[in-house]
Amino acid sequence: MKRWLAITFVAALLGGACHRETLDSFFYDPLPAPAGGYRLSTAVIPAYQTLTVTTPDGETLNGAFIPSSGRRADITVIYFHGQSNNLGTTWPRLEYLYPLGYNLAMVDPRGYGLSTGTPTEAGLHIDELAIRAAVVALPGVDATRIVDYGRSLGSGLAIDLAFTVAPAVLITESAFASIAAFVKDATYVDFPSSFVASSSWDNLAKVPSIPSPYLLFHGTADLYVDTKYSQELAAAHAPAGTTQLILVPGADHDNVPETMGLDVYRAAIQTFVETAIPAP
User: Which residue of 127, 200, 241, 250 has the lowest C-beta tally within 10 Å?
Assistant: First the structure.
């Protein structure tokens, strides 16, 4: 994967396609909803409500709010998916989390799924805050018992949101340290990050200021986002508060829960979250 990234970036640069917009689009790669809309399974999640969020700059974001099955309805997880995903492709991940008994919210940021607009770092920052505001405004949602969960690219959104408004718990999976570090490692060339991307997503600079308990998952066989990034994030956060890094042997970028085993994966989340957020 890293060699493929190297070829992609170098070919773009040599071909004269080094516009920031072109290379930023690689990082975001927004996936639209399928023609005809989503067909979301009810095999695990019996019901959900459509969640529509209007941002201050006029975009309309589409997602879903899944009420708790009843066990811990006081806790709400706001989930941010990765690159090249949307509500439909992320639904299985929400099914993994549903048995925990928490409320679940997932809203596609701008440009993804049925949401309008084009993703940029500034725009996604607006989306994070708008999504959180919409979720905590829902009946029964406790704003003091929010869990921000971000996977891959979504780790940047979750960390950025936690940096702005500290949640009760922060969780990331397959997280990166920054775009600059990712670009440098992916291309094997120390290009200035501003030369290849206008986005920075400097997660490593933000986590020391996040007081929330922080749980990190990362596969040891991740060839797309190096395991060392989660190790660096955990080390940077440790002085700020409770930190747990779970390295998953043999897991790649996309299959951490499956490689762990879903029961083990859920148990790790439950123990960490419910230690930080005791039952009322």
Answer: 250
